[in-house]
Amino acid sequence: MTNAANTSAVATVANDNAQKQRTYPRMVTPKTIKEGKNKNGTEFVSFIGEYRRQGKDKVYTMFHTASGAALSSIREQLKEGQPIRVFGVFDEMPADAERKSKQVFRIVGLSVPREQAAGEMQQAA
Length: 125
Prior knowledge:
Elements: H1 3-17, E1 24-37, E2 43-52, E3 59-67, H2 68-74, E4 84-93, E5 102-110, H3 114-124
Parallel strand pairs: 3-5
Antiparallel strand pairs: 1-2, 1-4, 2-3, 4-5
């Protein structure tokens, strides 16, 4: 995915939520992957992901989700225990009868190193 595509995905995220959200890159290792469909019939995937914060050695875990175009962009690389580089936004998962509200990392797309993205843009020109 090129930077132009990343920018487009970010604009879509901002438009969907009617506010600007900052995207964050993350190298995450998926554990316990679950797939399903939401009430609208859109496929989604959710998993507990392990990641490290910048400059820290400690491993943290957080609930991650992806659906729609984001899911199709990461599907090939999404394997349990295999690290994947993504970018996304922090969302709040609302509480229901079974769980408390909690913060989730919603994946927006696959993150590509700048060098590779620049090469893809030159090939497209």
